[in-house]
């Protein structure tokens, strides 16, 4: 199996250990981590290949989404967004350049209309983070998505 050079692997962290799966030989390891370690190169003991890993320390699992949707802003109309991920607590998406001025942290929006995913929750959202074109929002009602 060929793995692109400089491609990072995302490893899930559980109780101070990363669950590492070698992309070359598929061998599994539990690698101990330092408390605030965010990334590291890990060498596989079986095939001796080095992989650069990023560690995911989130408590809730995020499901990757990729597609266009619309953000229902109530009286202000709709805004086109590009979904990135969703969890039971919230959603991450990006907006087109210059649209960030229409949103502010703490603002409540009606919902995200996603025609291609019928399981997408139809709850109100609160904007929690705006970083350039990327936006993070949490659901007002916590609901199990998976």
Any descriptors?
elongated; 12 strands; mainly beta
Explain the overall architecture.
This protein is an all-beta fold and 146 residues long. 0% of the residues lie in helices and 49% in strands. The strands form 2 sheets. It has a 7-stranded antiparallel beta sheet with strand order 9-11-12-8-7-6-10, with no helix packed on it.
Average predicted local confidence, pLDDT: 85
Instruction: Give start-end ranges of low-pLDDT stretches.
Output: none
Any idea what the shape is?
elongated
Give the assembly state of these chains: single chain
- Largest sheet entry: 7 strands, antiparallel
> What is the overall number of helices?
0
Adjacency order of strands in the biggest sheet: 9-11-12-8-7-6-10
Helix-strand makeup class: mainly beta
How far the N terminus sits from the C terminus, by CA atoms, comes to 31 Å
Strand content: over 45%
Rg over alpha carbons? 19 Å
Helical proportion, percent range: under 10%
Number of strands: 12
- Elements, N to C (H/E): EEEEEEEEEEEE
Summarize the topology.
Layout (H helix, E strand, L loop, with lengths): L8 E6 L2 E5 L6 E5 L6 E5 L6 E7 L6 E10 L5 E9 L3 E6 L12 E2 L1 E3 L11 E7 L2 E6 L7
Parallel strand pairs: 1-5
Antiparallel strand pairs: 1-2, 2-3, 4-5, 6-7, 6-10, 7-8, 8-12, 9-11, 11-12
């Amino acid at each position: 199996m060929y793995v692109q050079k400089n491609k990072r692997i995302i490893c899930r962290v559980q109780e101070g250990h990363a669950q590492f799966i070698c992309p070359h030989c598929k061998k599994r390891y539990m690698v101990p981590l330092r408390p605030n370690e965010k990334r590291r190169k890990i060498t596989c003991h079986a095939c001796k290949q080095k992989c650069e890993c990023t560690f995911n320390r989130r408590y809730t699992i995020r499901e990757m989404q990729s597609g266009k949707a619309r953000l229902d802003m109530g009286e202000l109309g709709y805004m086109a967004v590009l979904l990135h991920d969703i969890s039971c607590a919230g959603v991450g998406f990006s907006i087109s350049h210059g649209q960030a001025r229409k949103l502010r942290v703490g603002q409540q929006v009606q919902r995200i209309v996603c025609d291609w995913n019928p399981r997408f929750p139809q709850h109100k959202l609160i904007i929690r983070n705006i970083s350039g074109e990327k936006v993070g929002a949490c659901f007002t009602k916590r609901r199990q998505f998976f």
